[in-house]
Amino acid sequence: MENIARWLVIGGVVLILIGGGVYLASRLGIPFGRLPGDIRIERGSSLFYFPIVTSCLLSILLTVVLNIIIRFLNR
After folding, report:
1. What is the distance in angstroms between the CA of the first residue and the CA of the last residue of the chain?
2. Would you list the domain boundaries of the chain?
3. How many CA atoms lie within 13 A of 75 on its CB side?
4. From CA 74, how far away is CA 68, in angstroms rounded?
5. Which residues contact 37 (CB under 8 A, 6 or more apart)?
């Protein structure tokens, strides 16, 4: 049970850090979700939005960060 509690706490801290990063990015004017290449189609009152470039950048960033963390944990 202690192991589950530890992972839940770590997950909560990670979510807080991600939320803080998103908040700081919006305050600094970084246009996540509005990058060139993100698909946005408006027709009448309907809207379709697919942030493909933003998703790719976040995937690359998370891959790099997680690889660095794993390398430090395996020492």
Report:
1. 26
2. 1-30, 33-75
3. 5
4. 10
5. 52, 53
